[in-house]
Amino acid sequence: MAEFVIKDEDLASLKNKVVIVTGGSSGIGLATVNLLLSLGASVVSADITEPKETPASSFLFVKTNVASWKDLSALFKKSKEQYGRIDHVFANAGIGPRANYLAIETDENGDLIEPNTQVLDVMLKGVINTASLAVHFMKQQPEGGSVVLMGSSTGLQPLRAPDYSTAKHGVLGFGRGYARLMEAAGLPIRINTLMPSWTTTNLLPDIPGLMKGAKHEAQPGLVVARGAAYLMVDASRQGDVVFVCDGKYTEIEKAVLAPAYEAIKGAGNPSDDEILKRMLELPVPAGQ
Length: 288
Prior knowledge:
The protein starts with a strand and ends in a 7-residue tail after the last helix. The chain has 8 helices and 9 strands. The chain has a 9-stranded mixed β-sheet, sandwiched between helices. The chain is globular, with a radius of gyration of 20 Å. The chain is an alpha/beta fold. The mean pLDDT is 92. The chain has a single domain (2-281), classed as Rossmann fold, CATH 3.40.50.720.
C-alpha cells in the first residue's frame, strides 16, 4: 500500500495560486477554502449557500448550483475575469442520498414518478461538468493546471444508498478515464481523485451522538482538505486515486486498482484502453 505523509511545507507553493472550490460554504469545502486562504491562495468559493462571513480580500463567492451548466459556466467566467487565470479546481460539492428505489411514488394522477436524480445531477454530472470547464480554461494557459475530484470510499464498495454509491463509483471511473485522456491529448493538466471515508461534513445528519452510537469516529474535514491541497501542488500526482481514512493518505490507483486489473485480465492480454488506442490510430477507410 502506498501510504504517504503530507507536511506543511509541502503545501507552501499554493501561495498566490487561484483555486476554485465548489461546495465551499461548509464541510470539507469550507475546510479547504480556509486552508487555501491561510496558505496565501486566492480562492473562489462556489455554493448555493452564501458563506457566513467573507474571510479575506483574496476570496470571491459566486452563488452556484453545480447541477446547472449555466451557473457553472458563469462561475468559471467570473473567476477568469477576476484573477486572469485558474490554477486549480476542487470539484467537491455534494449532497446526501435522496432516491428511494424500493417505493416508487405516484403523482396526483396516479402515474409513477421517476426516482429522485438530484444526487446524480449534483455529485456526478456536476463533477463532470466542473472538471470539463476547468480543462477548457486551463488548456488556454501554457502552464495548464490541476483538477481534484471528490470521490468517496463508498465508490469502492457496496453501499445501501445506491444513488450516492452510483455517483461516487461514477466519479472514480470518470477521474481515471479523464486522467488518461489528458495524457493522450498531451495537455499539461493533472486529474486526481480523492476517496475519503467517513468525514465530518454537513452531509451527516445533525443528530447528537450519531457517530458514537454507530461506534465509529469520523475524521475532521481538514484532513481531506489537506489531501486536496496536496494533489494540487504535487506535480508528480497524475491519475492518482487517494484513499483518506483515519487521517491517513494512501494512493490506491497505482498500488491496488491497476495491479488488480492486470491480474484479472491475465498476462499477455492488452487492456481495453490499449485496444481503443489502436482503433483510434487506424486510418479511416475512404468514403467513411
